[in-house]
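Worked example

This section walks through a single chain of length 127. The input is the sequence exactly as stored; nothing has been trimmed or padded.
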Amino acid sequence: MNANVNALNWFEISVTDIARAKKFYESIFGIQMHQEEMMGMQMAYFPYEDMNGKVSGALVQSEFHKPSADGAKIYLNGNPDLENVLSKVEAAGGQITMPKTFIADNVGHMAFFIDTEGNSVALHSNN
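Given that input, the structure is written out below as tokens.
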């Protein structure tokens, strides 16, 4: 693999109710997500400015996307401190399954939560 290429270039979080999931993620991250239909799928996109070398993704509702707590773990950016995001999870309808946990000095912190669609999602921050 080329060292200048990201190992991850896109992620999709499967949802059963796009409006509910969009509201959840907008609420905990304080963002606005653009929603549209594409190829028969309802999609709500995480904001991004320039995809050149950066990773982004979307919430996706379709017959092929089924939420699962056992799905792939994706780590969403919780910088500067993931506690800012984590503190909003339960009020937005999610459930914290691992509180902010120290990994190592040069790595930072992590936490896990279950979103309103039943997906297990991780957060990472340097602090």
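What to look for: The two ends are 29 Å apart (CA to CA).
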